[in-house]
From TrEMBL:
This is Penicillin-binding protein transpeptidase domain-containing protein. Gene3D superfamilies: DD-peptidase/beta-lactamase superfamily, Immunoglobulins. Keywords: Glycosyltransferase, Transferase. It comes from Candidatus Minimicrobia vallesae. One of its GO terms (molecular function) is peptidoglycan glycosyltransferase activity. InterPro entries: Beta-lactam/transpept-like (IPR012338), Glycosyltr_51/Transpeptidase (IPR050396), Ig-like_fold (IPR013783). It comes from the Bacteria.
Length: 301
């Protein structure tokens, strides 16, 4: 019901459009521009001779086969839609919109050039008024709020080397690594998306390490000597994960650095000719990057 009047012509009730704008005018203009592209080999066949229009197609499937299709073609002056399908909803065998586009092309061309133009409702080259603020960058349209530097930035996120997911408070320091990622913020929704190197997941947390994991252990450090040659002995034990490496140092100098795969006795030999105490440090690492370190001393007389 649009309007109600009484016998005297007085308006008793009248419909009023109370709708609100939900699409930004810049966004609408840019979408219309995109849908009007007539790039050869893309949607060139959807153009109307002598008339700039936008076009969109769609299909419905039935059992993975096209059941019907529709085409919408429109200009600032006129909209035409076409549906193609069978009344019994059987499949049509093709999803090619070029079956219906010749009809739309001829009708839209005639309606614009022979009807609307003569009635003053359309003129050649007519298009939507470009909203203020739209910017052209490298030949493409962008809204006023788009800024490449503002919408994209880089930051560092701490990941777990093993799971390649975000580190947690249970992730050992040895398994943590800082990776530079690209952060993009949608200017409209303000939603953030993160692009990470292949294999990494910024949307999940480390699920390999647990706070109650058993770390590797190092037994007492002992040594024997024959003259200036000292042999360091130490027992190492794996925790939740298998052992992977050991390093033994004497006064900060590495005397053994190698891979290991099982628990047991480890030895290292060093020649010492300086009297006094020499500090020995043993560090083991497992496959989950948990580490253990123990120190001892050698007394040289």
């Amino acid at each position: 019901m649009i309007e109600v009047k009484n016998s005297q012509g007085e308006t008793l009730k009248k419909w009023k459009d109370e709708g609100k704008q939900v699409i930004d005018s810049q966004s609408a203009y840019i979408v219309n521009d995109i849908l009007s592209d007539r790039t050869p080999g893309l949607h060139g066949w959807m153009g109307v001779n002598g008339v700039r229009t936008s076009a969109k197609t769609g299909t419905s499937d039935k059992g993975s086969q096209p059941k019907d299709l529709w085409i919408i073609n429109y200009s600032p002056a006129l909209v035409m839609g076409m549906w193609l399908g069978n009344s019994d909803t059987s499949v049509i065998g093709t999803s090619a919109s070029n079956y219906g586009m010749p009809v739309i092309r001829k009708v839209m061309e005639f309606a614009h050039t022979q009807v609307y133009a003569k009635e003053g409702k359309w003129k050649s080259g007519q298009w939507y008024e470009r909203p203020s603020g739209i910017q052209t960058v490298n030949g493409e349209l962008y809204p006023s709020w788009w800024n490449k530097r503002q919408s994209q930035s880089t930051e560092k996120i701490t990941f777990d080397k093993v799971s390649k997911k975000k580190a947690t408070n249970c992730t050992p320091d040895g398994a943590k690594e800082e990776i530079e990622v690209t952060k993009i913020i949608d200017p409209l929704t303000k939603k953030e998306s993160i692009t990470v190197p292949s294999g990494y997941d910024a949307n999940a947390e480390d699920n390999v390490h647990k706070c109650d994991d058993t770390k590797p252990q190092i037994g007492a450090i002992s040594y024997t000597n024959s003259g200036k040659k000292y042999t360091i002995n130490v027992d190492v034990t794996a925790g939740t994960s298998g052992l992977s490496a050991i390093e033994i140092t004497e006064d900060g100098k590495s005397i053994k650095s190698s891979e290991i795969t099982s628990s047991g006795k480890q030895t290292a030999t060093v020649e010492l000719d300086t009297t006094g105490a020499h500090t020995v440090s043993v560090t083991v690492r497992d496959s989950a990057y948990y580490t253990a370190t123990s120190t001892g001393s050698i007394q040289v007389h």
